[in-house]
Amino acid sequence: MFSKTANKASSVRAVFVYCAAVFVMLIAHAQSAGESPEKPFSVRAFGNGMRAAGIIVMPPRTPAPADVPRIEADLPGWLKRGELLGEIPNGNVTIKLNWESRTQLTADAPRYALRLANHQGYATLNQRNDRSAVTLTEGEPGAAWSEHTFAPMTMYAPGLYNALLSSTTVPRESIPLGQLLWYGQPVQTDTARDRVRDAYPEGAAAFTGSAVLSRWFRFELPVAKPSFTPRTLAIVSSVDWLEHVGDQTPVAEITMQQGGAKLGSRPLLLGRDTASTWYSFHARGNVAHRQAPVAWSWRERQESVDFEANAYVARYELEPANAAPDAISIRYVADEGLLRIYAVVFLP
């Protein structure tokens, strides 16, 4: 009896799942048939008469709630968000381009590759799919679209990214489309958690993972009260693209808060509190600052050679009256380079 009942329930579930899938496909088809770009723009046409004229960035970016680790921005006044192509979401990214065409599309549809380049030159991302042929949407004459997907950008610096569109066939041409904004996204990782446990077994970790900062951006970290009275705040980090910058240069400002009130700020200094991730790689007289105290090391491959990468620990003594902040803000203050935050730990 139980077996028959279970089989019947399983069959009902299978039919339900199938119907739901068909419904989603029909909805998606109906939406694509009447799809319009979120942001129209005007750039020059390629030599074959094809012109990208609009963009949809999927899924829409949703700001993180205030009770989780997050990256916020203090954008400069000259940056007009309404003039950007869009904002890059967390997770997988799909960018659809709407096209105008002066020529008849054939079965051998033209293909175009989209590349995203950090506006300060710190990273370049290439699309990862091959669905970039320009195709006509069924039932919509002249509604031509291409689709370009990118892997999650959690390890990349926040900031502006230039969108560069290139034809993949001769004659090869590249046309800049505009800029997108990436806010960054902190992620918790088991690797960082295990390293903190090994390095600071007596500590209470407020964050273990990866949070990348560049100019304009800050890391906002809600803090749960540890089971002991903390006397020291330890921040594990490293920097990139600052090998030419000297000792005692401020990289970030660390502010502790309690009940919304500011408890005080401390600087994160090159050579004392943090240093180049690739200090060993650049150590042939090319690093202008000293190597800060190492928290832990690991091996990375750079230019076909294995090198040691390092994370560094900064320690800040806490005043007894201010020993239990409920929030920590780390604001990047340099005009160039990147700060990688791996851990925030309270020590007794």
The CATH architecture name of the largest domain reads: Sandwich
Helix content estimate: 10-25%
Q: How many strands in all?
A: 21
Computed Rg:
25 Å
CATH class of the largest domain: Mainly Beta
Record the strand order, biggest sheet.
12-13-21-15-19-18
Distance between the termini: 61 Å
Determine the number of helices (DSSP H or I, runs of at least 4 residues).
2
Predict the CATH topology of the largest domain: Jelly Rolls
The topology string of helices and strands comes to HEEEEEEEEEEEEHEEEEEEEEE
DSSP strand (E) fraction? 35-45%
Describe it for me?
With 348 residues, this protein is mostly beta strands. The chain folds into two domains: 37-182, Sandwich (Immunoglobulin-like); 187-347, Sandwich (Jelly Rolls). The protein is built from two helices and 21 strands. The protein has helices at 2-33, 190-199, and strands at 39-40, 51-58, 70-73, 86-88, 93-100, 112-118, 124-126, 135-136, 144-150, 159-167, 174-182, 187-188, 204-213, 217-222, 232-240, 250-258, 261-269, 294-302, 305-317, 327-332, 338-347. The strands form four sheets. It has a six-stranded antiparallel β-sheet with strand order 12-13-21-15-19-18, with helices on one face. Strands 1-2-5-9-8 form a five-stranded antiparallel β-sheet, with no helix packed on it. Strand 6 (112-118) and strand 7 form a beta hairpin. 29% of the residues are buried.
